[in-house]
Specification:
Elements: H1 10-22, E1 32-39, E2 42-46, E3 55-59, E4 64-70, E5 75-79, E6 91-98, E7 100-103, E8 111-112, E9 129-132, E10 149-150, H2 155-160, E11 163-164, E12 170-174, H3 179-189, E13 196-202, H4 206-219, E14 225-230, H5 236-254, E15 259-265, H6 267-280, H7 294-302, E16 306-307, E17 316-325, H8 333-341, E18 344-348, H9 350-354, E19 367-368, H10 377-382, H11 386-400, H12 408-424, H13 434-445, H14 457-462, H15 464-471, H16 473-482, H17 487-507
Parallel strand pairs: 8-14, 12-17, 12-18, 13-14, 13-15, 15-17
Antiparallel strand pairs: 1-2, 1-6, 2-5, 3-4, 3-6, 4-5, 7-9, 10-11, 16-17, 18-19
Helix pairs in contact: 5-6, 7-8, 11-12, 12-13
Length: 508
């Protein structure tokens, strides 16, 4: 009988010896708890006295959840997935860790759930690292002033309520008033910038989310975008962690000196999931049945948006949270919370929306507390008096409805204001470049559109890009690159715009 055994390779023996040397030998104590009740995405667990708040818990069936409520008799554990596989009496153990999500460039171009699991059928995602969803906001000394613009491509926003990198700007309005459209157009507009975009859908219909994903993939820069989806049908725990997961994924790039835009759609539904979890875990309700800590939840989330100083890499994270109102009631609990946390709000009006004025931004209530400090110099110069002129027009238009023939000066203001309102109308998924925004504002402020019929303003805008590229390509390149319009560039642009307006009016 022959011996077929061969000696083990030395490399294998060395590796096995190293593993044995590194192994920790000794007694280990595992604390095991027990499921008392389970249902509606919540499990009440007993027997884990050492569990800490927000600690990740693992069930014997393989499910995971996190400890949301710590009481003497039981622990309120929020589940991430369907609770049907968990049974009362099942063993539970603490992991000693918090909820973490993958982060890194491997996530770009993907559609994921808040735990980083793929939803796009493109295979598993393995990030550069795992990062906790709860991270402290940057310290004040680590922050820099917000001075760099976020070009949304939406004229009414860029001219009247400019946004900056590192800002938190709330988009708020009634249902179906165009809130998500503004956010998606802002993401699409970043196809010409260096910003990474993260869209977080919380509690939305799957059909609506599918439309937004298609818009980003067809018109934006999907290779620099991440979409996180926690639809209305998902567990409350998954919806609750979604905004925090999106901020964590964005902070990975921010900490590397890059610029990130995070859209959270929307925090009203996130607050509803927080209320649902609180009531199911038997916490006392507060104002409008929301627990009082919902303010702290949203504050610690949005405070993570910031512009870092050069010593910290100079990156930025800009947050555009969305909130829904009922009948325009901005004084409700969640809207007032978010307005006090953010750096301004873009308020959308259902009345303007149904009148066909889209985007339906209410210029009288909306505000950006950063504003002109972040505008490109050329746009700030040309749009300096635009908001005042538009506000005066709205007042004059209201008074002119009472009858009477306005004097010549008032009639001129009314004609100019009507053109301002016309250029502020903009179709969806058609963001403008900086050069086109400057040209439009310059044309209306210089009175070049006063002789053009209102019905021709839309054709004027739609053909503007081709005219500028053909007639003044150097001015366009200078504006896009430096954001500055010198005296020579202004004169050249005015000449082209005047000829274009006269041609359009003559052709009509």
């Amino acid at each position: 009988m022959t011996d077929n055994t061969a000696p083990l390779p030395d490399a294998w023996l060395a590796e096995a010896g190293a593993k044995l040397d590194a192994a920790r030998l000794g007694a280990r104590v595992d604390m095991l708890g027990r499921v008392e009740e389970v249902g509606d995405g919540i499990a009440l667990v007993s027997g884990l006295p050492d569990v800490r708040l927000d600690e990740l818990l693992q069930f014997a069936s393989g499910q995971f959840g996190f400890a949301q409520v710590l009481e003497r008799a039981h622990i309120g554990c929020v589940l991430f997935d369907d609770a049907q596989s968990i049974q009362a009496g099942e063993a539970v153990r603490g992991t000693g860790d918090v909820v973490r999500v993958p982060a890194g460039p491997q996530l770009l171009g993907r559609v994921l759930d808040p735990l980083g699991r793929p939803l796009d059928g493109k295979g598993p995602v393995k990030g550069e690292c795992l990062m906790p969803i709860e991270r402290p906001a940057p310290r004040i000394v680590d922050r820099e002033l917000v001075t760099q613009p976020v070009q949304t491509g939406i004229l009414v926003v860029d001219t009247l309520f400019a946004l900056g990198r590192g800002q938190r700007e709330l988009i708020i309005g009634d249902r179906a008033s165009g809130k998500t459209a503004i956010a998606i157009d802002t993401i699409i507009s970043q196809r010409d910038s260096d910003m990474i975009c993260i869209y977080v859908a919380v509690g939305q219909k799957s059909s609506a989310v599918r439309r937004e994903i298609e818009a980003i993939q067809d018109r934006g820069a999907p290779e620099r975008s991440i979409v996180l989806v926690a639809p209305a049908a998902s567990a409350p725990g998954l919806q609750w962690i979604a905004p925090f997961a999106g901020m964590t994924m964005g902070e990975y790039f921010r900490d590397q000196g890059r610029h990130v835009l995070v859209v959270i759609d929307d925090l009203t539904k996130h607050a509803a999931s927080h209320r649902e979890i609180a009531l199911l875990t038997r916490q006392p309700p507060g104002r409008e049945a929301y627990p009082g800590d919902v303010f702290h939840v949203h504050a610690r989330l949005l405070e993570r948006a910031a512009k870092l100083n050069a010593a910290m890499g100079g990156g930025s994270l800009t947050a555009l949270p969305i909130a829904e109102t009922d009948a325009g009631n901005l004084s409700a609990y969640i809207p007032t919370n978010l307005i006090s946390i953010t750096d301004g709000q873009i308020v959308l009006s259902s009345k303007l929306f149904h009148e066909g004025h889209k985007p339906a931004v209410d210029a009288g209530v909306s505000v950006s507390r950063v504003g002109g400090k972040t505008q490109a110099p050329a746009l700030r110069e040309t749009a300096e008096t635009l908001r005042l002129d538009y506000a005066q027009f709205l007042e004059l238009e209201m008074f002119s409805r009472f009858g009477g023939v306005p004097e010549a000066r008032v009639g001129e203001q009314l004609r100019r204001g009507a053109r301002i309102r016309a250029i502020l109308r903009q179709p969806q998924h058609a963001p403008l470049r900086l050069a086109e925004e400057v040209a439009l504002v310059l044309a209306v402020q210089a009175g070049l559109l006063d002789g053009v019929e209102i019905s021709l303003v839309e054709p004027f805008r739609s053909g503007l890009r081709a005219v500028l590229e053909r007639e003044t390509p150097q001015v366009v390149r200078s504006l896009q690159r430096e954001g500055v319009l010198g005296a020579g560039g202004r004169d050249a642009l005015l000449a082209v715009l005047r000829a274009y307006a006269q041609t359009l009016a003559g052709g009509a």
